[in-house]
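Support request, please re-run this one:
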Amino acid sequence: MNKICIIGLGWLGQPLADLFIAKNWQVCGTTRTLEKQKALAARQLSSVRFNLYDTHSNTIPARYFKGAALILNIPPGRSGFVAERFEVQMKGLIEHAFSQGLSQLIFVSTTAVYGSCKGIITRVTQTAPSSSSGFAHQTIENYIKEHFWQQSVIVRPSGLVGRQRHPALSLSAKDNISLGLNPINLIHQTDLLAILEKLVEGNIVEQSFNLSTLDHPSRQDYYTWCCRKMGIRAPGFSRDDRNENEVDGKVIDMKSELAVLGIDLKYSSAFDFPLPSVFS
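Re-run finished. Output below.
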């Protein structure tokens, strides 16, 4: 039986598990809370409690890894992030998984590895992080490429959108937002799931993929439009007098990725994303 292990059965991992369960794959994974573990057990989904910072990787049963594809999806978190600890623990988890007979590693990284880059970003653009998270993910990417590249693939999603998760909800309450003319880089959960499915089923390795919609409207235009569509207060942007040649944001260009994968995005434009219901 085909097998997949998902480290992090949360916002992304849970629907991914459901997708592969529907395909009759053997699915297992980790969660941080007892409450979530009980909920997963009620759905006949095997899981163990695991927290990257304070749980040893060998607490995850060896059977979870043997002959499996592993989705390693552990965001660094917005509070309590300790880069050195994150790097050490992630490396230990990856090494342990491969020592137990892992078949394929899919590492969910981030476009934060391009923090200092400007302009169009493609698969061949050199990473240049500027944040602690970006540097940590770059370190882990390099570790994977040095030691396990023949069995691994890296995906770098842009800002994640889906269900009730949308940046416009938090930006709505803010004023004096800078860099309004900079382009957006977002990817919908539905498309990320389809890409992960393709990578696992095709056993694609030795590749890195940057993920984003094909359009990149300005932050001001897009988030103002979203809020008006949702019937909520539009965010306030500070004046941005830069001309077109002076706008220095990043544009994540994934046309090459789509050609390699042989698929199309369901939401190639951010304007096509279903917007959250804010009055239900």
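The longest helix spans residues 83-99. DSSP finds nine helices and eleven strands in the chain.
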